[in-house]
Amino acid sequence: MKHALIVQGGWEGHEPKEVAALFQSWLEEDGVQVEVSHTLEAFRDQERLMDLDLIIPIWTMGQIDPQLVEHVSTAVQHGVGLAGCHGGMCDAFRDNVDWQFMTGGNWVAHPGNDGVEYSVHFPSSSSSLTEGMRDFTVVTEQYYLHVDPAVEVLATTRFRADHGPHAANGEVDMPVIWTKRWGKGRVYYNALGHRACVLDTPIIKELMMRGFRWCASGKETF
Fold this sequence. Notes:
Blueprint: E1 3-10, H1 16-29, E2 33-37, H2 46-50, E3 54-60, H3 66-77, E4 81-85, H4 86-90, H5 97-103, E5 105-109, E6 116-120, E7 136-140, E8 144-147, E9 152-159, E10 172-182, E11 185-190, H6 196-199, H7 202-216
Parallel strand pairs: 1-2, 1-3, 3-4, 4-11
Antiparallel strand pairs: 5-8, 6-7, 9-10, 10-11
């Protein structure tokens, strides 16, 4: 049986409790044993983290003891998967560059704020994580991220050049979903998920579950 740790908290606007409950229910339906923690101190026990298959952070705009980041990083380097979404993973700790390096990017803006209608595009990819997926439209925040060039981009969105100072640069394609490696570990990120209702749709649930399963299987490859 796979074991996952969900750590939720931080800014309440991203509904961390509701998202944690949603992910817990999905994973338990998939046969995963899930522990949910409401404190970052769950990252204090290095040996416990090493025994996991998957870590899911849901914690926006927080501050973290650098030692806790080191513990998570060490676990991932040894094969524990790290997966998450939206600000809960890539706007978790703005002042910790080690976290940003591990996760593959960090939020910097969402032009238009909530309620932007945009398309999510799946470029040609050999990844099983997007096999059979078709482009779709969402109405939510459109994340502008600073992204590690080492990531494998699985889905993108196009930012139109119609408002804001960034528009002077023209249209750009921004990663929405990516994966990367961190030592022996697998990392998965999906920029969608401003609220639980955004995640609780069939296509986004499928994308997240594929990411969770892929990350949680990292130890099986060595």
